[in-house]
Amino acid sequence: MKRNIDLNEISDGRLYSSGDMVKADCHDCAGCSACCRGMGDSIKLDPMDIWRLKKGVGKEFTALMEQEIELGIVDGMILPNVRMTPEGDVCPFLDVYGRCSIHAYRPGICRLFPLGRYYEENGIKYFIQIHECARKERGKIKNKKMARNCKLESV
Ligand code: SF4
Ligand code: SF4
């Protein structure tokens, strides 16, 4: 999803390529599930996400629509997103231990977080969303590894 915002307000001002080291390693998110809560409709799902979810959870799209996902409109397009629970405002895939129950087939946006994509004419670069991750003592990780986690993305 594209957003028209000032990159300097939400990042460290740098754009990262595949070979760069980036301070985005959240140490397996141990003890934290902050970005799995109260996310509204922001966890958008692309066709690959849906394919993975269907396969991993073992439900058809219509069955996922009953509880786990919903449809929204982005830039005039109808796109599915993860639906927060009405009672707790948490991701329906977060388990009682505060861990992701669909880790192996979680959405691309969750795989990449706290990195975001920056779309250029010649491809994609990445930036750190400095205000989004609750863990401030993140380690360095090769950007290529984060991006590979995300998709079959050639960076
Ligand atoms: S899919 Fe997993 S990682 Fe993504 S918000 Fe839900 S619980 Fe968190
Ligand atoms: S806020 Fe950061 S450390 Fe916490 S779950 Fe999300 S990515 Fe992991």
Provide a descriptive summary of the structure in words.
This protein is an alpha+beta fold. It folds into 2 domains: 1-26 and 114-155, no CATH class; 42-111, no CATH class. The protein is 21% helix and 21% strand. The chain contains 5 helices and 6 strands. The protein has helices spanning 7-10, 47-58, 61-64, 108-112, 143-150, and strands at 21-25, 69-74, 77-82, 115-120, 123-128, 139-142. It has a two-stranded antiparallel ribbon with strand order 1-6. A two-stranded antiparallel sheet has the order 2-3. A two-stranded antiparallel ribbon has the order 4-5. The longest helix has 12 residues, at 47-58. The relative contact order is 0.26. The model is unreliable at 150-155 (pLDDT under 50). Residues 36, 43, 82, 91, 93-94, 100, 102, 106-107, 110 line the site of one iron/sulfur cluster.
